[in-house]
Design goal:
alpha/beta; 30% helix; elongated
């Protein structure tokens, strides 16, 4: 099986798309690291409609995740 390999040109193009809002990641829920088990249960139940994120304590600033449900 072939594996995609990123190069500097591709990464710069992707960065531009993200910054311009042309590519928007879909984040369903954000859980604090202490609730990772609950996040896994949520994923296993098949409810996720996007990415489910476990936040490390240093990044648990709700203002950084506006519009996303933070448990």
């Amino acid at each position: 099986m072939d594996t995609a390999k990123a190069n500097q040109k591709d990464l710069a193009f992707l960065k531009e798309l993200l910054e311009d809002g042309k590519v928007v990641p879909v984040i369903d829920r954000c859980y604090p690291l202490s609730e990772t088990a609950e996040a896994i249960r949520y994923l296993e139940a098949g409810h996720a409609q996007g990415k489910v994120i476990s936040l490390w304590p240093i990044t648990t600033r709700p203002d950084k995740y506006r519009g996303r449900e933070i448990k």
